[in-house]
Amino acid sequence: MTPERRRGEALVRAIHEAALAEVAETGLGGLTMEGIARRAATAKTVLYRRWATPFELLVDALGEAHPVEVPTPAADDLRADLIAALTLLTDWMITPAAGAVLAITSERARYPELAEALYRKVFDPRGGTFTATVLRHYAASGRLDPRRLTPITTQIGEALVFKLSIDSDRIPGPDEIAAIVDEALLPALGL
Amino acid sequence: MTPERRRGEALVRAIHEAALAEVAETGLGGLTMEGIARRAATAKTVLYRRWATPFELLVDALGEAHPVEVPTPAADDLRADLIAALTLLTDWMITPAAGAVLAITSERARYPELAEALYRKVFDPRGGTFTATVLRHYAASGRLDPRRLTPITTQIGEALVFKLSIDSDRIPGPDEIAAIVDEALLPALGL
DNA sequence: TCATTAAGCTACGGCTCCGTATCTAATTTG
DNA sequence: CAAATTAGATACGGAGCCGTAGCTTAATGA
């Protein structure tokens, strides 16, 4: 009984949401215009008027998705700042956009253009990873040996969060994040 | 001009190979009986006589895939043994079965039965991970503090190998594996 | 108010995969 | 060599998605 026809931006936003939800549910291989339209409760024609393929639509949706918060180090407690950075990561991992990003990166070999677009539109604009931001900050203020900042050490935190997520099929909790920092990250930094 | 009709085991092996190759190329969502049959150069009927779904077929194929070598620590050079263990991992990662395993784990949320079957048929029979085998060995012979063997530290090596693979879209080389051991693993073990 | 824009609906032929049935011919086995 | 298996080929109706077309009707704004 409510005709209420969506238009313009509101409609596009609903379609973007539908696309992310659809990817999370069906995977990249199962992403179809028909499915997105159904979930957004609109018509296929509306989609085709704006995008040529489901992938173009998806890249747009990712570009519009809320950007991740950037860690703001307190600069006087490295351990707490690292934990905060990894917590930001796990917070992001439960968002719809994260599911889509996971799908794209893990199927990169099959859809390289998509992965490329993801990096260009989402990752590159944001500067660097979570822990790297913190570590660079501490290195710049002389509280950390810059030689300890390598492509390996700056990835340890994120790597373990992802690995634990895969192995246990759930996002690591505060205790596990603390263990990552205490048992892996800080020792590798020489602390 | 070669009628040469495959039968029994030889045929099944060819079908298994086709299934793994098909998963690598199309993803789990795109895995179809039709596609596997086409790639194996046989008829759909042959597949349906043995398996009810592409997923059953795939699980069988994984069970038959060459099991991974188990690290055999030399017990007098931890660093070399860790590097050897991670090299075994990267060697495995370029096999067809690894592509299928990656697809299944990354799409676990969509096909939980598949992931469950994977663990039951492939991971569980093999005991533990690559570096964990080495570390347990050294801890048992008293050359390593057993308290250093935590769910975190035993995962650092594998976690970084996977993370680097995802980020750079290629398998880490010998220098990168050495860096993982020297900059992340050994420090976390207190060495 | 009234013309313009765009959303929403229905339908189309074409394609691919589904799962099954039927038939043939190659290979094994006794 | 004859009999029993089973691989392989073909065809089927059904379903879902493709991309496009034609139309109705709600929202907008001059």
Key traits:
homodimer, 191 residues, mainly alpha, Arc Repressor Mutant, subunit A, Tetracycline Repressor, domain 2, 10 helices, 0% strand, DNA-binding
How is this fold's topology laid out?
Two copies of one chain form a homodimer.
Chain A: H1 8-26, H2 33-40, H3 44-48, H4 54-64, H5 78-93, H6 96-106, H7 112-123, H8 130-140, H9 156-168, H10 174-188
Chain A binds a DNA duplex (30 and 30 nucleotides) through α2 and α3.
Overall description:
The structure is a homodimer of 191-residue chains. Helix content of chain A is 63%, strand content 0%. The radius of gyration of chain A is 20 Å and the shape is elongated. The first copy, chain A, has ten helices and no strands. With 191 residues, chain A is mostly helical. The first copy, chain A, has two domains: 8-64, Arc Repressor Mutant, subunit A, CATH 1.10.10; 78-188, Orthogonal Bundle (Tetracycline Repressor, domain 2), CATH 1.10.357. Chain A binds chain B through residues 24-30, 99, 102-103, 105-110, 115, 150-153, 155-156, 158-160, 162-164, 166-167, 169, 176, 179-180, 183-184, 187-188, 190, and chain B through 24-30, 99, 102-103, 105-110, 115, 150-153, 155-156, 158-160, 162-164, 166-167, 169, 176, 179-180, 183-184, 187-188, 190. Chain A binds a DNA duplex (30 and 30 nucleotides) through helix 2 and helix 3.
